[in-house]
Write the structure tokens for this entry.
Amino acid sequence: MSPAASEPATTVFSRGLWKDNPVFVQVLGMCPVLAVTNTVMNSLVMGLATSFVLVASAIIVSLSRRVIPKQVRIASYILIIATFVTMADYIIQAVSLEIHRALGAFISLIVVNCIILGRAEAFSSRNPVFRSVMDAVGMGAGFTVAIVALGTIRELLGSGTWMGLPVFGPSFEPWVVMVLPGGAFFVLGLLLLLVNLIGVEK
Amino acid sequence: MSDPRLLVTTSPFLKDSASTAWIMWHVSLSLAPVVLVATWFFGGSVPLVILAAIAGAVVPEGIQTILRRNARQPQAPPLRDGSAFLTGLLLALTLPPGIPLWMAFLGGLVSVVLGKTVFGGIGSNVFNPALVGRAFLQAAFPATMTSWLPVAEAGSRAQVPATLFTTPLLAADVDAISAATPLSQATFGQPTPEFADLLFGAVPGSLGETGALVILLAGLYLAVRGIVNWRIPLSILATVWLVGSGLHLLDPAGYPGGMFHLTAGGLMLGAWFMASDPVTSPMTQAGCWVFGALIGVLVVVIRVFGGLPEGVMYAILFANAATPLINRFTQPRTFGTRFKPGFTR
Amino acid sequence: MSAPNAINPPAETSSGRMILVMGAVGLAASLLLVGTYRLTAPRIAANRAAYLQASLSSVVDGADRFVALIPGEAGWVSGEDVPGGSRVFFGYAQDSLVGLAVEAAGQGYQDIIRILYGFDVTCGCVVGMTVLESKETPGLGDKIEKDPVFLANFKRLVVRQEGEPVSPVLVPRGQKTQDWEIDAISGATVSSQAITDILAASTPGLLDALERLGQPAPPVDSPAEDTP
């Protein structure tokens, strides 16, 4: 259930980064985590787009939490989230068509990313705006850090580059599997193992 | 505990005198002729690739042994049972002779870590560990894994291709050493080698897949000693021959014959040494026949209709995944009951 | 600050209020979307045009403007508003035709491959090829986009010999002897074959359209005006 209202705002923020990390601890939103983390750039854009949608929808959901009737809340949240996802889609197309082509349908699929609806339902709809924003920023940052970590490992091994810059020199042998979906499962599994070794409070 | 009057325990009740370690080392030893034949045809790179793959397989197993000793866990030390050694050896026999040593090492590592340890160690793995390692290498380095050395000339056996010593993480110059395997020749409609060459192994291919006759003899020895369940290889080979010959009868120009399918590629090695792995094959005798037939059909289907020239690896991995289901449907009737196998429990 | 449970009591909410709230949310959403669309549309259009222009220039050398047309029943029809897939771009330099860029697509190893190829009317040959969209296996099939030897096939690939269409033929690497043969990528035969098949399927239709409809008249307006 939602955390106590007495919790300081900094704790609300840092929870998403580590203790309740949406990828490594909650294991939510696996569709983009597995599908678009083949390069650091794709991961970063996906993380930022998701964070934007998280924060923007958290503000609106939190503001309207007393207005929206319980019976139609999910429909309203989805409408709000879909609006911001479509905005993000337009903005990414305007900034770089290349990245938009690489991310493909996965930008539109942010709508069904369970992290966003989950935070709207579990946190923003029960908390004031400032705390909701802190929570959304924390979750967004946690998600972004996690998928950029995945993207870093996959791009380093799969293409020998980082953000498109060659790291291992020209005669590097790319591990093709790392760019393919199978590599995402391997890397995610190993990172989950690592996070559990370090010890996250469940 | 000293000799309880009534010992209540689960099956198995009948135990063979052969220990896991005895079986593993015995199988490894029976592969020695295969290794010798491979060295004869592909030269000095063979022992090096084998050593690298075994090293890759043994290192994680050794670490696990040390960790367990420190944790004072009561299991037998896993390194000494020889299963990691055998996994590394089998993996090496499926690799192309010109593969860089660092890739062979990585393959061994993946075989044991992703193929066995993560499932809970020996006896708990779903898939054949050596084939997991090979599948990983195939997916990671498809170009290197499909570049084959030509068969060595008489004078050049001592030479080792330079690609073996590629610095880790760097690419090998495999374009220079490419030769076509009999199966890829068949895929692209080129003339295939003589039957005798296929039988004795004078064709390009993975280290241990070319000498069909030697592998057959080694496998037969293991079957006679009761180490390998003969039903699985027999069922695989018979199915491949039947399906392959059937297709050949339908269109002799379009499809290679049954004997070609039997002797080309990794079928012999896969059938005798990988599909018959007791951990990942069915427990019931009827299940073994089904398991073998499934592999046989898949091998021919992938080879003839698929995009890949060779299908033994994926066929066995796929059948491994089907093993629990096969076990379930082939339960023998318990004495004195009318139990029908299937999903009834 | 209110306790979490006190919000949204489940009791009696009239349908009228629900409809009102949903309507308001919908209205606000559409306003936001229209606003964003109007702000970003020019940039998106410019990005798309630049991408297309770059692809066109890469297969037809020296053209300063392109006109998108599609073959119709009785003549070439404007293809400016036609969604991509079967357009023929006539490239002009100083009102004289320098080459054609043709869209084509076909099944690859993983998914549909969309390509753009340059075509020279006088020699009847393909003069360039670029992949617009493909999901071929990284490291193997995607060599169709950048393998220099493979791309060199399309510098001059004859598809019309003495007035008759010729189908391109894929041959193993290093065995190309004829102008209509394509040197395959070793290890990526399926993807190489896919490109060959796309060209073999597309070029006869193009040759037929050119023979039936002739070349369209060069555009009348001056090149400087609407060159992107």
